[in-house]
Amino acid sequence: MKNDISEVVLSEADIQAIAKRLGEQITEDYEGKTPILVGLLKGSIMFMSDLIKYIDTHLEIDFMDVSSYVGTKSSGEVKILKDLSTSVEGRHILIVEDIIETGATLNSIVDLIEYRNAASLEIVTLLDKPVNRKLHVDVKYAGTEIPDGFVVGYGLDFDEKYRNLPYIGLLKPELYQ
């Protein structure tokens, strides 16, 4: 797998430093509120598991499985494959995302959670790739901005492969074009 990566974008140490920084911010902002962290499957699972280790306040976790990608491109159509198992009404919700690109998936999820009357709603993402943004997304907790390129590893995949890399790297274009 390592031979398929042209460049490491974030090392394991970089990722842990981001998770720690964001976890400390969330701890301060959500003290006494017991937020529900909603992980968007499958890509966010590694980031979410590290992030919650650095959040020092009571919290709950839940997951949604949403899809809008076909290969390496967003289809623009968001499908909910698994919905939340917890009611969000009157609760403080923090959506945990691995990467924000077009904004289509998050906009759909934000609309849905707002419709369900959450007390508050914020977004935390490990990676922000604004170069591909089509819809505005308010992100309160952003790990780091990355340049254009198809990234894999640490939960991010190409056709379900590469999720288990402990770092995030640029996939060689000849492997997905």
UniProtKB/TrEMBL annotation:
- GO terms for MF: glycosyltransferase activity
Q: Which residues form the signal peptide?
A: none
Q: EC number(s) in its UniProt entry?
A: 2.4.2.8
**What InterPro entries does UniProt report for this protein, alphabetically?**
HGPRT (IPR050408), Hxn_phspho_trans (IPR005904), PRTase-like (IPR029057), PRTase_dom (IPR000836)
Metal-binding in keyword set: yes
> Which pathway, per its entry?
Purine metabolism; IMP biosynthesis via salvage pathway; IMP from hypoxanthine: step 1/1; Purine metabolism; GMP biosynthesis via salvage pathway; GMP from guanine: step 1/1
Where does the UniProt entry say this protein principally localizes?
cytoplasm
Checking Gene3D superfamilies in the record gives: 3.40.50.2020
Q: Does the keyword S-adenosyl-L-methionine apply?
A: no
Q: Which UniProt keywords apply?
A: Cytoplasm, Glycosyltransferase, Magnesium, Metal-binding, Nucleotide-binding, Purine salvage, Transferase
Name the coenzymes or cofactors required.
Mg(2+)
Q: Which reaction does it catalyse?
A: GMP + diphosphate = guanine + 5-phospho-alpha-D-ribose 1-diphosphate; IMP + diphosphate = hypoxanthine + 5-phospho-alpha-D-ribose 1-diphosphate
Q: Where does the record say this protein resides?
A: Cytoplasm
One Pfam family assigned to this protein is Pribosyltran
The Phosphoribosyltransferase domain covers which part of the protein? 15-158
Protein family membership: Belongs to the purine/pyrimidine phosphoribosyltransferase family.
What is the stated purpose of this protein?
A: Purine salvage pathway enzyme that catalyzes the transfer of the ribosyl-5-phosphate group from 5-phospho-alpha-D-ribose 1-diphosphate (PRPP) to the N9 position of the 6-oxopurines hypoxanthine and guanine to form the corresponding ribonucleotides IMP (inosine 5'-monophosphate) and GMP (guanosine 5'-monophosphate), with the release of PPi.
Q: What is this protein called?
A: Hypoxanthine phosphoribosyltransferase
Q: Which organism is it from?
A: Salinicoccus halodurans
